[in-house]
Structure formats: structure tokens, C-alpha cells
Amino acid sequence: MKLSDTAIQRPVLTTMFIAAFLIFGIVGYQRIGIDLYPEVEFPVVTVTTILRGASPEVVESEVTDVLEEEISTIEGVDEIRSQSFEGLSNVIVTFVLEKDIDVAAQEVREKVAVATARLPRDIEPPVVQKLDISASPIMWIAVSGDRPYRELSYYADK
Predict the structure, then answer these.
(1) How far out from the chain centre does Cα 40 lie?
(2) 3-state DSSP: the chain helix, strand, coil percent, rounded to 5?
(3) CA-to-CA distance for 75 and 58, rounded, in angstroms?
(4) pLDDT (tens digit, 9 = 90+) per residue, 47-93?
(5) CATH number of the domain at 44-135, please?
(6) Is 22 exposed, middle or buried (0-12, 13-18, 19+ CB in 10 A)?
(7) Structural domain boundaries in the chain
(8) Which CA distances in Å does 157 have to 11, 121, 141?
(9) CA neighbours within 13 Å on the CB side: how many for 27?
């Protein structure tokens, strides 16, 4: 017998199956977890260090290189990228996907604490942060015109 023959010959059974599918569908729909921005943790840790008044070359040689050397000994490091600006060092450490981000951040903090003894005394304490995608802006809006700044800000907000 075909499915269609059974459905026609047994309408009560067919109705029960349809009702069961509807109920399971409605219950499943209500319980499904939906998030506009799902929480995703990338295994990326940044280290930002400020050395006021120092040139990019000094920042690179006295801060960035020291931090990179110490951080590179951590197990599971996939890539280290750095940028040295006037008075600012930014080291971005990417770990393999299998690495737990909390463990990775703690290991980076420990290595930065060790490296702090070799850094210049007048630096601000290095800031170690995990990459947080939800803290990133969704959209950038650029507004320009002949109007005062306050009025342009009002238009951008609306």
C-alpha cells in the first residue's frame, strides 16, 4: 500500500499524525534559541601598552619586541602581529582554534607580567584583553556638512 492510500483509508490516523507534527513544531519553535548576534569567541588576545612621548622605533625596540619575545613561548600560538605607533604598542596574539580563550588570556597575562620587568619604567601597565566581537560597532556612519557639529550629531542619531 502506498502512503496516500493509507492516509485516505484511515483519516483519523492521518489527522493524529498531522496534529502531532503541528504540536511538535509549535513547541520546538517556542524553545529554539535565537540570538541576533550569537556569542562567538575567537581565540585572539590583544596586549596594548602605552609609553608616552616615545617614537614608533623606540616603542618597537623597547616594548613590542620584548612582549613578542615573551609571548611567543606560549603553547598554541598560531600568529603574533604587532603595530608600534607613537607612544603605543599593540600586540595581537592569535591562538589555534582548539585553545580555550580564557586559558590563553591568562597565559598571556602571566607572560606580560614576566616581561614587565624588562620594559621601560615609565610605561603604563599593559592591558591584556580578549577579542570581543559583540563590542565592535555594527555600522559606521560618516556625516559631513555645513551645519554645526551638534546638529550633524542629531541627524546621525536619528
Answers:
(1) 7
(2) 45, 20, 35
(3) 28
(4) 999 999 999 999 999 999 999 999 999 999 999 999 999 999 999 99
(5) 3.30.70.1430
(6) exposed
(7) 1-34, 44-135
(8) 59, 43, 10
(9) 6
SS3 category, 77? strand
Evaluated on CA atoms 21, 26, 30, 32, the torsion sign reads positive
Which value, in Å, is the radius of gyration of the alpha carbons in the chain?
28
The position carrying cell 602571566 is: 110
pLDDT of residue 156: 81
**609571548: which residue's cell?**
71
Residues 6+ apart with CB under 8 A from 82: 60, 64, 67, 68, 89, 90, 91, 92
Contact predicate 129/48, CB 8 Å: yes
List, for residues 108-126, the tens digit of each pLDDT value. Answer: 999 999 999 999 999 999 9
- The beta strand positions in the chain, using DSSP E, are 44-50, 77-85, 88-95, 127-130
Does residue 51 contact residue 101 with C-beta atoms inside 8 Å?
no
Dihedral sign computed on CA atoms, order 109, 74, 79, 38 = negative
Parallel, antiparallel or unpaired: strands 77-85 and 88-95: antiparallel
